[in-house]
Design a protein that fits this description.
With 231 residues, the protein is mainly α. It has helices spanning 2-17, 37-49, 57-74, 80-89, 105-120, 127-135, 147-158, 162-171, 181-193, 201-224.
């Protein structure tokens, strides 16, 4: 009897100490339900492979969450399957590059993601919409008429502005960078260019707020680096 209890105790301790990575996730970090097997596999791919503070899975999850918010505020009907897949795979070329390095990274994602989605059981008829959203997600692109592509484009653009935009660009400087002056120049370009590229009313409203935040940050940085001479 004692041996039986001991065996049970050891089994319970082993279960408690098992690494959390063996557990199948039921929702994302921000609470998005992983209510289909393909979503679990795409999310696990992103969490395990797409690791970078600027382009990684956190950026993808923000894009999905914000894309839904923009759609709700503008009254757009978005296919959440398409938005989820495109949001989590749109920057995959940063981690899984195409053989042709000249391809724009959204075009590369559109080339590579169908095989992943088919293998994971994603609805095949929706793959072209995912590809279209991936191709046009950047601020310098023009999305088509599909709501998922529109809100992904706007959410991705907004993630270049505000405090998060500053954090992302500074994260790209890296340990070997001579200074963060190039990141500052890029942020100033974003302030000039991105607002006019936003499509939805809600994104334009949020864009104004985030531009103000980013301008305040850049002004403070300018002052604290001796008018930018010590960046």
């Amino acid at each position: 009897m004692k041996l039986a209890f001991l065996a049970i105790a050891i089994a319970l301790i082993g279960t408690a100490l098992a690494p959390s990575s063996t557990l199948v996730p039921t929702q994302t970090a921000t609470g998005v339900p992983l209510d289909a097997p393909w979503k679990i596999r795409v999310y696990e791919l992103a969490r395990s492979k797409f690791l970078h503070p600027a382009w990684g899975w956190q950026h993808s999850e923000r894009n999905y969450d914000l894309g839904l918010e923009l759609a709700r505020e503008d009254g757009l009907h978005v296919d959440t399957d398409v938005l989820f897949a495109a949001a989590f795979l749109h920057d995959m070329a940063a981690f899984m590059p195409c053989k042709d390095r000249r391809l724009e990274h959204g075009a590369c994602a559109a080339l590579q993601s169908p095989a992943i989605l088919r293998a994971d059981g994603f609805p095949v008829a929706k793959i072209p919409a995912v590809q279209a959203a991936e191709r046009t997600h950047m601020y310098y692109m023009t999305p088509g008429t599909d709501p998922a592509a529109i809100v992904l484009h706007d959410a991705d653009s907004l993630d270049f502005l505000g405090a998060i935009g500053a954090a992302r660009m500074l994260a790209l400087t890296g340990a070997s960078a001579a200074s963060f002056a190039p990141a500052v120049r890029t942020l100033r370009m974003f302030v000039r260019v991105i607002p006019s590229r936003l499509v939805t009313r809600s994104a334009r409203r949020l864009g104004r707020q985030r531009v103000a935040e980013l301008n305040a940050f850049l002004a403070a940085l300018q002052a604290e680096t001796r008018n930018g001479r010590a960046t």
